[in-house]
Specification:
The complex is a heterotrimer. Chain B is an alpha/beta fold. Chain B is about 35% helix and about 25% strand. Chain B folds into two domains: about 160 residues, Rossmann fold (3-Layer(aba) Sandwich), CATH 3.40.50.300; about 70 residues. The chains are: A mainly alpha, B alpha/beta, C mainly alpha. The interface between A and C is large, with 43 and 44 residues.
């Protein structure tokens, strides 16, 4: 049964743009998948180790800027830039982790917020590298031939397949993490950090490892974001709101679950985009974040284990 | 050589003197009781030995090697395991997983760690609760789970922080047997307890501390007659 | 030298308002152990209150505070009673996430109603700054400073002299003991939350003539507010006042002597250093 569901999901994942190819829907699916990766990234840290980060935009931004700068300044194509962006984010996570993990609970959350704000301000002011508030823009993507045909970057479908592969990677990584010792240690840290130390777990090291893995996927998603939207500026990729949205996707979907971020992204992003459209049409305004805030409040109050967290109990699934 | 030697251990919290110039030894195979009135500094002493707080002054030697100032996980790796006064199980994990996590320290593969955990749980009489969540156990079971978790790290020295607090008379009797049994299995024990009867029956030696200082260090039968100890427990100010 | 004095003066003026916001957050934390991410939105609410007063009711913003403090108090009561009360027992982190959701909801609701335009309040009497001893003091900030002192003194009197105030302080210091001594914990919590909300809102009203207002201004204000209360020690009222003044002065000195763009970063850097090395606050009075 489970295998059938997984197989069907995979088939759906890779054939979806062939079934509905209207650009708006493909764009919507791309957004859902990108947010799935960001939710999965946050879940790897927040869900497993229980450490609430309000600064994950740092890693998204690091990936986005790395990809952009490598392409614009050194001519390195984004498909190399995206994984490199992930690695850069994972590296940045190390010092941040060793500093912030000296703090616990809400204090940790506040420290990540402060770090993210500092980094946003650096990006805003280090103009020689980041071009400051003006941001960075890609006009054309390099020519690539795939099976003898040149890829049309004006079409959204190639982007869909790129993000689909990244999403699959993040979900598989979450699954693998849930089966390894790092995953088990993370849960111990989430449940009781003193007890985790008392049974010999180096909790700083384990949390830094989880943060770094988490940052990698946020960085990869950031690289994709830059390549897909072709424009970034510090307020777009380093904002507190972006960090908070990542938290919401993971929490609404269901923490510590493998499929939770996907469900969270479908619910928040897909419905959010529909809200956004309605608000844009009727009020000429971007109103989807009202929906995000409301969903978050409802979920914490009535479904603290998240939507998928509740459903999987019903289906008796482990993931 | 003593298994554990504590020398001149001192801890100040701001201006508050929690432990002052505390020295004692523990020999391999002993059960050492650590008693004292509320706020005497027993738990602080435990936290110092286990690395949860770091001493202002003083030495802690395990097998002659200094462990003062080490992080808790490093102390555990050196062979000292502890329990907490207020139990701290991994609440939403199964009993087996609670102990398996601890067994990972000596058995990196999950299979071996799990079989080690099962053995320990059996010794603690928890084999029937293996798949229950820790949060669903009774207090007495949670206390045993905590000891099982500590034992799964294969310690040389086990620090028990009030393993009998909140238990009823029958459970205390069982717990006493268990403590002696663990000691027979080759684990040295330091034991903080408020249930004096249990500690006097099971310990080889008792250290009494009051207001952060050691006031007595002798076998149980001498402790009960020591005037300083009686004064400390009756609440008269020392001297 | 003159620049130095000038920056200190402007720093203290702004800092007095930061202090008010910080006091609001810190009393809420002290009594309920919750970090209210929506606190900045209460300030934003006050700012829009001032804007509404002058635009539609033609009431001077500084006078309108008499109107907005009770309204904010009532909103605080309602938010606590109907939203937060059931969440607080679920733990610090859940409450943190919940108030983050609340913050996003409020900010974007206002965005919907008021649109994202930047607005300013122009006061006829406040075009030219006062110049005592050659130091420029903007009139709106001077009035705000005076009123902030009045309100803070009134709050101090309330906390020290009234039974409810004493209950709040007792709960903040020793929650279990306070409950045993017969303090009505629920009532204390609701009053504290409403009080904190009213303070934030009042600070918003006072700040409005000196800042740009836009719906998501709370985001940056709440971040500053964390800096303030951590500097002073979470839960400490005098600490929050000192922390607020300190942040105001540091920002204003930083703008002159370091760089304008990095002035906000200085606050966060100090914040991190304090969190790491003095988690109980610079003055060692808070709870960690």
């Amino acid at each position: 049964m489970k295998k059938i569901v997984i197989a069907l999901s995979l088939i759906l994942l890779f054939t979806a743009p062939l079934i509905v190819s209207a650009p708006f829907f493909v764009h919507l699916m791309i957004m859902v998948l990108m947010w799935t990766v960001l939710g999965a990234s946050w879940n790897i840290l927040g869900g497993f180790t229980g450490q609430v980060s309000f600064g994950h935009a740092t890693f998204l931004g690091a990936g986005a800027y790395t990809t952009m700068i490598l392409y614009l300044k050194l001519g390195i194509a984004p498909w190399y830039g995206i994984p490199i962006g992930g690695l850069v984010a994972a590296l940045i996570a190390l010092p941040i982790g060793f500093i912030c993990f000296r703090l616990r609970g809400p204090y940790f959350a506040l420290s990540t917020l402060a770090v993210a704000e500092i980094i946003r301000l650096v990006a805003l002011n280090w103009e020689s590298l980041t071009n400051g508030p003006v941001g960075l823009l890609i006009t054309t993507l390099p020519d690539v031939t795939f099976r003898g045909r040149s890829i049309d970057w004006e079409n959204k479908i190639p982007f869909y397949y790129i993000i689909a592969i990244i999403t699959l990677g993040s979900i598989v990584a979450t699954y693998i993490m849930s089966r390894t010792r790092l995953g088990a240690y993370s849960l111990a840290i989430r449940e009781d950090i003193d007890s985790a130390e008392a049974i010999g777990i180096n909790t700083v090291q384990a949390r830094v490892a989880a943060l770094s893995l988490s940052a990698f996927f946020a960085g990869v998603a950031g690289g994709f974001y830059a390549m897909y939207l072709r424009y970034i500026d510090p307020d777009a990729v380093f904002s507190i709101a972006l960090s908070i949205e990542m938290v919401f996707i993971a929490v609404v979907g269901g923490l510590t679950t493998v499929a939770g971020p996907l469900i969270g992204a479908i619910v928040l992003v897909a419905f959010g985009e529909i809200f956004r459209e309605i608000f844009l049409v009727h009020f000429k305004l971007v109103g989807h974040l009202i929906f995000y805030g409301l969903m978050m409040m409802i979920v914490i109050r009535y479904l603290p284990e998240g939507i998928w967290g509740r459903l999987r109990l019903r289906f008796g699934s482990q993931h | 050589m003593a298994l554990l030697a504590v020398k001149g251990l001192t801890k100040y919290f701001g201006g508050l003197r929690a432990v002052h110039d505390l020295s004692f030894d523990v020999q391999t195979g002993e059960i050492l009781g650590l008693i004292g009135p509320n706020g005497a500094g027993k738990t602080t002493a435990f936290n110092l030995i286990a690395g949860f707080i770091h001493p202002t002054r003083g030495e802690i030697l395990l097998d002659g090697e200094s462990i003062a100032g080490m992080k808790p996980y490093a102390v555990t790796r050196k062979g000292i395991a502890r329990t907490f006064q207020i139990v701290k199980p991994f609440r939403k994990l199964s009993v087996l997983e609670n102990v398996t996590l601890a067994a990972f320290l000596r058995f990196p593969s999950r299979g071996e760690a799990e079989s080690q955990a099962r053995q320990v749980l059996e010794r603690m009489g928890l084999e029937s609760k293996i798949s229950a969540l820790a949060v669903d156990l009774t207090l007495s079971e949670q206390k045993r789970l905590e000891i099982a978790r500590a034992l799964a790290t294969q310690p040389k020295l086990l620090l028990l922080d009030e393993p009998m607090g909140g238990l009823n008379a029958t459970e205390i009797e069982q717990a006493s047997l268990l403590v002696r049994d663990i000691c027979k299995g080759g684990v040295t024990i330091i034991w903080v307890e408020h249930v004096l009867k249990a500690i006097m029956n099971s310990s080889n030696r008792v250290v009494v501390i009051n207001q952060g200082e050691k006031i007595a260090d002798a076998p149980p039968e001498q402790i009960v007659e020591n005037p300083d100890v009686i004064a400390a427990y009756l609440g008269t100010k020392k001297r | 030298m003159e620049t130095f004095v000038q920056s200190i003066v402007s720093g203290i003026l702004t800092g007095s308002l930061y202090a008010m916001i910080g006091v609001g957050l810190t009393v809420i934390f002290g009594v309920m152990r919750i970090i209210n991410m929506a606190h900045g939105d209460m300030v934003m609410f006050g700012m829009y209150g001032a804007f509404l007063s002058i635009t539609f009711l033609k009431i001077d913003p500084f006078l309108s505070i008499i109107l907005w403090i009770p309204i904010a108090f009532l909103i605080g009561v309602l938010i606590y009673r109907f939203l937060l009360k059931n969440i607080v027992p679920a733990g610090e982190l859940n409450t943190l996430l919940y108030t983050a959701g609340l913050s996003l909801f409020i900010a974007n609701l206002v965005l919907l109603i008021a649109t994202g335009d930047y607005r300013t309040i122009k006061l006829k009497y406040a075009i030219m700054p006062l110049r005592p001893f050659g130091i420029a003091v903007p009139i709106p900030l001077a009035i705000a400073f005076g009123m902030a002192i009045l309100i803070t003194v009134a709050l101090y009197w309330f906390l020290v002299r009234t039974d409810t105030g004493r209950a709040i302080r007792a709960t903040s210091q020793e929650p279990e003991a306070a409950a045993l001594m017969g303090v009505n914990v629920d009532r204390t919590a609701i009053i504290t939350f409403a009080l904190g909300t009213a303070l934030a809102c009042a600070a918003g009203v006072l700040l409005a003539p000196s800042l740009y207002l836009y719906p998501t201004v709370g985001e940056i204000l709440v971040a500053k507010c964390f800096v303030i209360v951590v500097l002073g020690g979470l839960g400490s009222v005098p600490g929050a006042i000192a922390g607020g003044l300190l942040l105001g002065v540091v920002e204003s000195l930083g703008a002159v002597y370091v760089s304008v763009p990095y002035k906000d970063a200085i606050g966060f850097v100090i914040f991190l250093l304090v969190l790491l090395f003095r988690p109980s606050g610079l003055f060692g009075v808070g709870k960690s």
